[in-house]
Design a protein that fits this description.
4 helices, mainly alpha, 91 residues, disordered C terminus, Arc Repressor Mutant, subunit A, three-stranded antiparallel beta sheet, single chain
Length: 91
Amino acid sequence: MPSLQYLIDSMCANFTAPSLHALVRGAVAGGPTTLTRLARLVTEKDPSLDMGSARLLVEAAVGELAARGEVVVQGEAVWVAAGAPHTPAGP
């Protein structure tokens, strides 16, 4: 998968890597969520992005946070690492 910064730059998204990380952290702080819900949040913040592009950005941001041990990703589900093994509600 391309790096988050590469995706942001190539899509001309109105985000920075830190701002996307913050969006994900804020969303999962309220409880488990899904990649689809996170992508919807991204499109709300930047309406120029379609859901497919938003999903790519979310997957890259979540991947970086998971690699740092900040979040856990299992399929569509994402939650704070300290909160595992919570199970999120459906999309």
